[in-house]
């Protein structure tokens, strides 16, 4: 599938990842409609394209009657990123809100089928992987796509809803021939990221000069933070290459301990502070890293941004665009909200 000159919809296109995807699709010559209720997305993320007429922006809630139908009208490919979603603090403390994604996804996929949309590309998550596999940070574990299966044990209501979204799309493909691809994003970071995700929270704490400097968990959690540019490239390749609802990991295979990321943030920002570990705060799985060989095989996709390089770029962005007094006043709330 070639996306040039195609009419595409990006739901949640004013979000962190959605706005980067919107930019990339415009650059490729797609005609982009964004539907976003701006519950966590920001119009400023895509303002330039909206003002120049390159993006059609509709502010609307996709769960309101008739909105999903209007959103997909005349569209060839749908990139579905709208979700009630936040970082670790949010997904652990807001189960009911995350459960509304079941309705949001169901309504949108049904509208896509009824309108004859050619393909749906779904922003799924590493949260679909069973929690019980990810408990030992000492294990050299790389999650392969086939590890999601009975017994399913997804990560909070947020993870279950993403898993149901993937399964719904696979059923729609099997039974009704609607093409789709699900992209399992792993802890995404980069410019325009939000403080409710770990990397931006670490940077924000250094930015405001926090001391003691708080780290959630015991610092031993392992993650494969993946730069948003790589996520966007993989998402577009999934749109071009996958038809049958296959779910694919988009994540690096770099294994980084939270405490090592913290040390680099402190070193690079020149902030010296006493580190205070808070194991009682939401921590998530102890060992979550993707295997990305299926992405290489099916998409010819590989992450290009090394974590430490992307981290420094993100720090530079944060420090050059944020106002210290504003961050001080909102930081605590942002850690668990969206
Ligand atoms: N950031 C990550 O690390 C990560 C990891 C895995 C998956 N994802 C998924 O990627 C997608 C984008 O996430 P993000 O991190 O860019 O930020 P995000 O959570 O802010 O993005 C969600 C977007 O959807 C919009 N939205 C929410 N409910 C809506 C509704 N009912 N109608 C219309 N718009 C609605 C929000 O305003 C926002 O712009 C989400 O689906 C998220 O679950 C993100």
Structural overview:
By secondary structure, the chain is of the alpha/beta class. It has 2 domains: 7-188 and 225-250, Rossmann fold, CATH 3.40.50.720; 194-223 and 254-286 and 306-334, Alpha-Beta Complex (UDP-galactose 4-epimerase, domain 1), CATH 3.90.25. Helices cover 41% and strands 17% of the residues. It contains 12 helices and 13 strands. Helix 5 (95-115) runs parallel beside helix 6, helix 7 packs across helix 11 (307-321) and helix 9 (258-269) crosses helix 11 (307-321). It starts with 6 loop residues before the first strand and ends with a helix. The structure holds nicotinamide-adenine-dinucleotide. Nicotinamide-adenine-dinucleotide (NAD) is lined by residues 12, 14-18, 35-41, 61-63, 81-85, 104, 123, 125, 185, 187-188, 197.
What key attributes describe this structure?
41% helix, Rossmann fold, binds nicotinamide-adenine-dinucleotide, 338 residues, 7-stranded parallel beta sheet, two-stranded parallel ribbon, UDP-galactose 4-epimerase, domain 1, alpha/beta
Summarize the structure.
With 338 residues, the protein is α/β, with parallel strands linked by helices. It has 12 helices and 13 strands. The model has no long low-confidence stretch (mean pLDDT 97).
The N- and C-terminal alpha carbons lie at a distance of 34 Å
What is the third-level CATH name, the topology of the largest domain?
Answer: Rossmann fold
Order of helices and strands: EHEHEHEHHEHEEHEEEHEEHEHHH
CATH architectural designation of the largest domain: 3-Layer(aba) Sandwich
Q: Rounded to an integer, what's the Rg over CA atoms?
A: 19 Å
Number of helices, counting only DSSP H or I runs of 4 residues or more: 12
The low-pLDDT segments are none
Helix/strand structural class: alpha/beta
In what range is the share of β-strand residues?
15-25%
Chemical compounds bound to the protein: nicotinamide-adenine-dinucleotide
Strand order in the largest sheet: 3-2-1-4-5-6-11
